[in-house]
């Protein structure tokens, strides 16, 4: 399937590994793919996102913000859990920074998470539906927006991008 990818789409897929590595993550998710898509300013995906008022920094902010309904310090304090006390106790036992992200590893392969694999599969379906021959970054962006329960789709939703708006923005970008 990778042979059907245009060069910039291949670069985005390999760029997702760099994004995951820089964040200290153990797996490449659809959110990493999304950040890599936005990183190349002249790609179809980045131009489409820009037309929707979204760029790489906005996506990183959406990725790093707590999800709706996720636990935060105030919610935990309301039930008697003091995160600062927990952190102090863990760091007292295991050393300073024990709860922080691990340092990025260099050189080792990072596997794809199931949602990233689904995005790659979905991108092929998008290409077939459009009767295109190559998968470009626009197809990957649309695929990210279509995969249910994926980190990338959640980040897009936090940034105000729906599957319909992503598809329309990609089509408009290609037509321009």
Automatic annotation (TrEMBL):
State the PROSITE patterns in the record: CLP_R (PS51903)
Q: What protein is this chain from?
A: Clp R domain-containing protein
Entry annotated with the keyword Ribonucleoprotein = no
Record-annotated Clp R domain positions: 2-176
Keyword Repeat attributed = yes
Pfam families of this UniProt entry?
A: Clp_N
State the organism's lineage.
Bacteria, Bacillati, Actinomycetota, Actinomycetes, Micrococcales
Supply the Gene3D superfamilies for this chain: Clp, N-terminal domain (1.10.1780.10)
Q: Which InterPro entries match?
A: Clp_N_dom_sf, Clp_R_N
Native source organism of the sequence = Cellulomonas rhizosphaerae
Q: Which UniProt keywords apply?
A: Repeat
